[in-house]
Sequence to fold (201 residues):
Amino acid sequence: MKESGTDWAGLENRLQKALTENRYRHTLGVTYTACALAMRHGEDLDAARLAGLLHDCAKCIPNREKIDLCRKNKLDVTEFELEHPVLLHAKLGAYLAKKKYGVKNESVLSAILWHTTGRPAMSRLEQIIYIADYIEPNRDKAPHLEEIRRIAFEDLDSCMYSILQDTVEYLETNRDSDSMDMMTVRAYEYYRELIEDRETL
Ligand code: FE
Ligand code: FE
Fold:
């Protein structure tokens, strides 16, 4: 399904109101980075643009309210998410994208849903949003950013592997390892195997 009927200016205005100034700037950074990646990798431009704009639409809702909204709308909240409610912004974001912002395209919704943890065998659009979130121009703290930005425009799978490797390492050293979302570990293992298999061919 095409997003060509989208009122981009109207959507941007709504998001600007729903987000803090910094979060909105990040959102625009993710959006144009996702668009550039979609151009490079032959993915639907409007779907990438829509997913980029909406990926953090639930991020600025207070954590308590995130939990309440999830429960009220019957979205599963895991024990792990209760302890780390910031993770809920992806799940709740996908829900709000559909209900509040009227997105019907399931591939856009799933790109929003998986943008924080990643998952094994991601679709190209899911990868583009995950990667754009990590490399957009306002980001400056992650290691190897220069190299990861270059790989993003060459090979999405090996870019996923690089980001997930750094992310798992970061989570292991900077927080107790029980704070690591199992989906991120599974995603990391999936992409490690994919890339290692490719290298031994
Ligand atoms: Fe996010
Ligand atoms: Fe983000």
